[in-house]
Amino acid sequence: MNDLKQYIETHKERFLEELFSLLRIPSVSSKTEHKPDMLKCAERWKELLFAAGCDCAEVHPTEGAPVVYGEKIVNKNAPTVLVYGHYDVMPVEPLELWKTSPFEPTIIDGRIYCRGANDDKGQSFMHAKAFEYLLKNNELTCNVKFMLEGEEEVGSKNLYTFCEQNVEKLKADVILVSDTSMIDSDTPSITVGLRGLTYLEVEVTGPNHDLHSGLFGGAVANPINILCKMVASITDEKNRITIPHFYDDVLTVSNEERALMAKAPFNEEKYKEALDVKELCGEEGFSTIERTGIRPSFDLCGIWGGYTGEGTKTVLPSKAYAKLSMRIVPNQDPDKISALFQQHFEAIAPKCVKVKVTPHHGGNAYVSPIEMPAYKAAEKAFEETYGKMPIPTRSGGSIPIISGFDKILNTKSLLLGFGLEADAIHSPNESYKLEHLFKGIETIVWFYRYFEKKKS
Amino acid sequence: MNDLKQYIETHKERFLEELFSLLRIPSVSSKTEHKPDMLKCAERWKELLFAAGCDCAEVHPTEGAPVVYGEKIVNKNAPTVLVYGHYDVMPVEPLELWKTSPFEPTIIDGRIYCRGANDDKGQSFMHAKAFEYLLKNNELTCNVKFMLEGEEEVGSKNLYTFCEQNVEKLKADVILVSDTSMIDSDTPSITVGLRGLTYLEVEVTGPNHDLHSGLFGGAVANPINILCKMVASITDEKNRITIPHFYDDVLTVSNEERALMAKAPFNEEKYKEALDVKELCGEEGFSTIERTGIRPSFDLCGIWGGYTGEGTKTVLPSKAYAKLSMRIVPNQDPDKISALFQQHFEAIAPKCVKVKVTPHHGGNAYVSPIEMPAYKAAEKAFEETYGKMPIPTRSGGSIPIISGFDKILNTKSLLLGFGLEADAIHSPNESYKLEHLFKGIETIVWFYRYFEKKKS
Fold this sequence. Notes:
Strand content of chain A: 15-25%
Structural class of chain A: alpha+beta
Largest sheet of chain A: 6 strands, mixed
Oligomer: homodimer
Radius of gyration of chain A: 23 Å
Strand order of the largest sheet of chain A: 1-2-6-3-7-17
Shape of chain A: globular
Number of helices of chain A: 13
Distance between the termini of chain A: 29 Å
Number of strands of chain A: 18
């Protein structure tokens, strides 16, 4: 066993206890009731950054959740790595589907089950431990800066401002981000593309109060019936989005690149089996990998209205609601898409109802250049730990701030993700493999070793 | 002031206290947690029947909520009236829309606000007080039987059995039911038609667990998207129901009857104003009164799925649900309609999802003959209290057991309703006008006076 593996083995229990201390804090950014938990989690990160060896570590208040910043400057002329991660997590509902307590990390069959175990407490924590190892072994030849925010899951609004106000402080040669997945435990991959996002909420109002569905049914517009008709019409029979001008800015991906994408290992039967679906469903003319990687999508993330309790209630409700997201691709602008949706939704609303559209957060898509030194260093790092070169892939997910970094800080990001689809992030029973946690730390250490060489 | 008005005036406070004692019991039949309240409410009714002067009053256990039965036999050869009512109420959600506590009767501006104030505790209570008056004043020349059930809002399943087992006991010349509305406070009306009902619940399952809407969105069927498309297709652009054979058994109403219906006072502008809607919406080719009176309808009574909490959550959920009701008209069979819906819904489900259809309760439509003596007596009774003849109307609501009475007991029902649309039954802030409560008692007393004459 080499020194690195030995170090991880020796400090395993402490590593887990440190990570668990973050996981136990229910830092759900979308719920105001968790505001105190956001500060608690930021403070805990500050302690962990000091403990890992940072010269300074600070909790910066913002208008929302605070930003944690820490750094170790070894040499003003050495290359600088900015590590970005987020300590906020998704809501845990539906609670009844969790097999363990969502904020009590529990190890079962080599996996840590907990909200945030992967996304992104587990993945960002690996960077602190890789940094600790390099520093303790006098191997750190890069300057390292850490920036952890608490609003990634709700659009990073205040991190944009923080970046704008701290361009000099955040200066770096590359931004390292572990918040994505790899193909499988034996197939390392680096995410080179991310979709962007537009998230909106709609409210449809029929009569001004709930009505008896017998006395009024058939004569007065039912807002649930109308909402369903309206959202149903947003996609056509080819599963294309019907909003006028929606596809105007979509970059066409070349046949060459599509051919390359088709070479990534993908077993459709296994994919369907894991989800227990008989058939997949998506835009006509594109493969599954293309549908999530290079094409936009429209998903209802939530819907509610009327009586949803036990048994029956014959009611024609006053209101119906939906939350929806559109994943967008390179060159589509989230604000423009949001406005197009709003305009369209208002235009298709029949006169018998009132509609209200509330845009939530959004973010641009991102494409990472595979020619940059950091990418080459990451390739070699994966080769050291996995014995094979990582495959460049495009993820359907979104990390809106990544394109913001590019614009505000003029710095490219490298998406060094160690998650798996099976980790069920954003879902009940989120988990993270211990094997990936430890191999991730190793790979990051190797990244620094090669990155320094590449740069100098 | 005549004796009858004087009696009501003198005993007003006691009447209200008695009614309030029923209203305070949260007898929500669709929720199992309220099982003890059903028994409590039945026992309270039994006490009130004894107090009003019944010779016997019993609480009959059933497999569900108990049936209360009481009677006063004055003369075996005299005509017999069976009073039917229900002591169960609708759920009270959404709670936040109530301006008063839903189970604490509160009088504001001449109205009692409380769940059940009208439907049907308030309306059925009038019968006990009219009976009390007639008995105390030695005016009762009919036999009176009372039957109060606790499952009307959930389909009266066990009352069918109770009726089948007690055909002799329940023998009567007419069944009196106050569970409907009149046109307005100055325009008495008698409901001569009721729609039937079919109520179902559907569940659409996409993937076997909630997914990240970025990683999977666009490639895996979203059950909310699919549910919306499926239910949206149940009605067409003319607001007709698209289920094959749905209209096969609908009785065509003659142009003569439609012309008569068109004469009932109806102010569309006021109707829209009261509901705060710009336009009405219903089946092409029919008026508003026809749409609720003689045509079937399809309403989503509830829908839910995915994330419905505060803020945002980007999720592609595993399941989506809806509760829906179809109001049916004379000659349509609820079981047949339920089966047609199920068959159709399963047939239109795309292969990328699984669907489950659960039928709830149903009931036939009903048409009451206006030639029967009880109807004529009721006409005269209204004339006494309101100074004008009541208008025969058709209601869009359903009281499934009414057609059951016809079949099992071979007895016609007379729908002597004193509610108003403004009473918001089934909705938050249900209320009942004190004026209607007291005028209702008067009218019922007059009904007995004329009914006895008609019969003898």
